[in-house]
Amino acid sequence: MSEYFAEFLGTAILVLFGGGVVANVNLKRSNGNGADWIVIATGWGLAVSMGVYAVGNISGAHLNPAVTLAFAMDGAINWSMVPGYIICQILGGIVGGALVWLMYLAQWKATEDQGTKLAVFSTAPAIKNYFANFMSEIIGTAILTMGLLFIGMNKIADGLNPLIVGSLIVAIGLSLGGPTGYAINPARDLGPRIAHAILPISGKGDSNWSYAIVPVLGPVTGGMIGAVIYRLFYKGAFDTMSVVAIVLLIITLILGVVLNKAKNAKGIESIY
Predict the structure, then answer these.
(1) Domain count across the chain
(2) Using DSSP, how many helices (H) and how many strands (E) does the chain show?
């Protein structure tokens, strides 16, 4: 199996289990309907673990464009492989989303709320404020990539590593997931959002593309910033890509302010 197909498969597995737990908890007339946030956070953590178990020995199981960019900055993957990894991750996210739709095929019509259906595929903020939402995704993803790099510093039995990575996802979900639903992964959000847009889901509504930039640009920026912090404090390294990451951080936060003030912005709440 090639590294690219491994990233496709691993991401599809991640989204199948991760989107599946959200569907199980939120969709009406599902046997898991009504469970709580802990179930969702645990499900996503195990979803990542299963994806890592599946393809970790083949591609490194990034399963996340933000992780791929961070690892490229740290020299763990050649930059020439980055575009292929990211494309395959997004395609895997689309397929994973489609599989969740098929798995819960009988539950979509029984669920009336359009936002609940969309939440199975993609994230949305608890309070819509682009600047604050970007900040949440940046911090959450920076912690993710730093955490993965920290874990890599330790000698861990191969069979336990995916569970430790999954535990990191659970920790992020429980502690940092409330503001935006912790996308922390562009492929996990954009791929299933595309699936939501193209699939014939009963009574689905729109795919909330006006918010879609946040769970893409926020994690990309945060992932790179996490790599900058790790490399600066643990390796004493600061290079051109570090500067690029900082510039991207500034641009992202400015964009958050601009989007909040845009004339066509709807539902924005003040944070002051």
Answers:
(1) 1
(2) 10, 0
